[in-house]
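Lab meeting, item 3. Inverse folding demo.
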């Protein structure tokens, strides 16, 4: 992969992560992790900025060092999954699609809540 392609993808995933902060249904953390991965290959400056960011940095460091997700992040993510499903329930007419999305959201929520919480002494 070229450095330019990695840089473009890093900014794309960072933009999606930022949109995901305010838009229900669009995840933040996976896009943030992708932005960090691509920035490591495309821009040392962006990579340092992500890890130094007051909000994003702690998420990235906790994940990288401990594969851990904070309780607050888990709660917000599960609430957003529920809110997204409720919005879809009112807008989507297919029971099969709603059931499929519900199963996907349950799997995602189960994965999130089973991740360890960051240990402060590490």
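The presenter then showed the designed sequence:
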């Amino acid at each position: 992969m070229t450095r330019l392609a990695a840089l473009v993808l890093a900014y794309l995933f960072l933009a999606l992560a930022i949109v995901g902060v305010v838009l229900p249904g669009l995840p933040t953390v996976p896009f943030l992790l992708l932005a960090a991965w691509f920035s490591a290959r495309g821009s040392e400056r962006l990579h340092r900025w992500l890890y130094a960011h007051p909000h994003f940095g702690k998420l990235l460091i906790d994940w990288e060092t401990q594969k851990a997700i904070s309780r607050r992040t888990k709660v917000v993510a599960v609430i957003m999954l529920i809110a997204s499903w409720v919005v879809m329930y009112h807008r989507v007419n297919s029971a099969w699609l709603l059931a499929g999305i519900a199963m996907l959201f349950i799997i995602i929520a189960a994965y999130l809540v089973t991740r360890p919480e960051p240990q402060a002494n590490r």
